[in-house]
Design goal:
Blueprint: H1 3-6, E1 9-10, E2 16-19, E3 24-29, E4 34-39, E5 43-48, E6 51-56, H2 62-80, E7 83-90, E8 95-98, E9 103-107, E10 114-117, E11 122-127, E12 131-136, H3 139-150, E13 162-165
Antiparallel strand pairs: 1-6, 2-3, 3-4, 5-6, 7-12, 7-13, 8-9, 9-10, 11-12
Length: about 180
Amino acid sequence: MSRIGKKPIPLPAGVKIKIDATPGPMHVEGPKGKLTVPVPEGIVIEQNGAVLDVKRESDAYAAVHGLTRALAANAVQGVSAGFTRELDIVGVGFRAETKGKDTVHFTLGYSHNIEFLLPPGVEAKVDKNTHVILTGFDKQLLGQVAANMRSLRKPDPYKNKGVRYTGEVLRKKAGKSGAGGKGK
């Protein structure tokens, strides 16, 4: 049996769960927002007091058991505490700044500045012009926004300049060896 699927999900105070008929979506509502989790056929979610239990009808549904439990746990954590993703901008002259509530302007060495629009539910804060902190209650949407920001200027393997996740370990490649050695 799935080890992840067997773990109960604790419900923090202020989180409301509404489970539709199986198979159907589960609605999670909390202080940060509302999320909907799809519940596939063969999976049953039961609320026992302040705990959610995810069970499967048979071993034929083992493949989606742990997945459904993880999605439900992420939704519960997201609407109660939220998620954070951090990015670092490395490079001379590279920086970011927020304009209004839903726009981040990037200067990344191109001939123009890049204006990045944030979707509803994701907020950005810029520290020291080179550290972007993204917060939101939907883990999937937050990760996608962070990946889109990183793709604006991926870290260069030779100089390690660009946008990277905080704590991301990069391997720096060596340049050409013997440059300028022939013909002189």
